[in-house]
Amino acid sequence: MTLRPLADVGAADWLVSSGAHWFDLASYGPPGFASYVRLVGRGRTAQGAEGGDLDDEDVRAALVEVLALHTTSAAEAYFCLWEGGGLEGSGAQGFPDAFPPAVTRMPRVTLGMFGERCYLMFGGALGEIGQWGDDPGHGGIGGPHLFWPADHAWCVASDVDGDGSERDIRWVGVGGTSALIEALRADGRFELEHTGPDHPHPYR
Question: Quick one: which of 3, 1, 25, 2 has its CA closest to 123?
Answer without folding.
Answer: 3
